[in-house]
Amino acid sequence: MASTWILFRREFASFFATPVAYVFILIFLMLSGVFSFFIGNLYERGQADLLPFFNFHPWLYLFLVPAMAMRSWSEERKSGTIELLMTLPVTTFQVMLGKFFAAWAVLGLALLLTFPLWLTVNYLGNPDNGIIIAAYLGSWLMAGAFLAIGICMSALTKSQVVAFILAVVVCFLFVLSGSGIVLDSFKGWMPPLLLDTLASFSFLTHFESMAKGVIALNDLGYFLIVIGVWLYAGFLAVEQKKAE
Amino acid sequence: MISVKNLTKRFGGFTAVDNLSFEVKPGDIVGFLGPNGAGKSTTMKMLTGFLTPSSGEIRIADQAMDQSSKHIQQRLGYLPEGAPAYGDMTPIQFLNFIADIRKLKGREKQQRLDEVIEQVALTEVLNRPIENLSKGFKRRVGLAQAILHDPEILVLDEPTDGLDPNQKHQVRELIQNLSKDKLVIISTHILEEVAAVCNRAMIIASGRMLFDATPEALQKKSRYYRAISLHFTQMTDISGLAELPGVADMEVERHSGRVLLFPEGEQELMPGVSAYIKNRGLQVDSLYEEQGRLDDVFRQMTAEVKV
């Protein structure tokens, strides 16, 4: 636990030593603002909530989170620091958790910094702040799922670019499997049970209710399981490929 | 105490380390020699628990590597090949991180940090990002990291690679000054380094152990060991030198005109040769006994393997 905390601090500081964290936060804030106001019509809807803001999160994360996660293991392997890390008295598992939580903390920070939007809707009307907090939590959790995929893909390759592309593709599949386009095209011939299973794999399906403020146990469980499974897969990949 | 038994590592169809067995005791400073690709780094990676052997056993301080690698790693300092470090950190941040991971705390931590920074002379670059440092400084950061927790066992993969002669000298001194009950393994392909620092030399090639004894024993294997090298001021008839008792062979180096007399066995030739020169009144401007040429032995040994 103590080692994980030390690793977490190093990773977290490294996000700010290289401009990754600043660039990420800046672009996240800009894009989420642009999307909610110009495409989501936050003003014109005339409702005091943040639904237009949260609805775009999966699509923002789709590209931004893999960009943030791509260096986590690729860089270690490329620069050889993985050899140093793995011969220190820490386990791969502790390193994995340190990396994940550090990046997740930066994502959380980016979300927190969107507070002016929250202030805005509170100034303009009387939103249900409980819903907004629930949606924030849901969004952070979903970001963690994107992140776990990104870290796993980064563990697979020395090249950050390859890691980024792989992560975007896999994340895209997870997002898309619940979208209308995919579900409609399968609707005619696929048994409903399979269709539901397919939809239930999607980040969108599980995030939808969370964005509306409903935190159900199965949605929570879903994201936590996704995070756990992908981090474990990444852990296996690191153990397998560290020497290459 | 390190004990390695029948250590083998295969990568696909390629055997990098082939049935290696050896023991190293505290106080040993082992020079691990071999041509590039001989399996030195692979062996070190297994000794430090980074790679898992394909077969064979590694025991360090009475613990098996495959069962208690984390315990072993606490007692071990390792400088990986190329001295990797986190480029975005400064040396002081990096060493603080390593100290925390090594569970150094409070005054002890500060004391060790000060000591190590002084030992490898890092003071002037403490607050510059590691990625902007010169090769020599990077290597020293790597060394500092390896000795920070004062480990009983130190494994250094090419610690002087890329350093200038002054820095090489510093690093060698540092290794010599480590306390006498430590166990050090250094890989290198610089032969003088072994003679200068180590009390034991191991040569491996193609993953197999070719030689394991003192550097002196290695020198003795050279055909130049105890050979007499001399150079005459003027053209001289030297045929008589080859007839001297104990001389097995005589050679003249073409470009320098230097005469080399090789002894039979370990016979001492110097008294005979100097008497001969005196008696004839020959003019000699240099005369000495060779110590044995390590690179010669090295080439000979490792070339045999390839054939």
From TrEMBL, chain A:
Keywords: Cell membrane, Membrane, Transmembrane, Transmembrane helix. One of its GO terms (cellular component) is plasma membrane. It is found in: Cell membrane. It is a multi-pass membrane protein. The keyword Kinase does not apply. The keyword Glycoprotein does not apply. One of its GO terms (molecular function) is ABC-type transporter activity. The chain crosses the membrane at residues 12-38, 58-74, 95-119, 131-149, 161-183, 220-238. InterPro entries: ABC-2_transporter_component (IPR051449). Its main location: membrane. This is ABC transporter permease. It comes from Bowmanella dokdonensis.
Automatic annotation (TrEMBL), chain B:
PROSITE patterns: ABC_TRANSPORTER_2. Residues 2-231 form the ABC transporter domain. Keywords: ATP-binding, Nucleotide-binding, Transport. GO terms for molecular function: ATP binding; ATP hydrolysis activity. It comes from the Bacteria. CDD domains: ABC_DR_subfamily_A. Belongs to the ABC transporter superfamily. This is ABC transporter ATP-binding protein. It comes from Bowmanella dokdonensis.
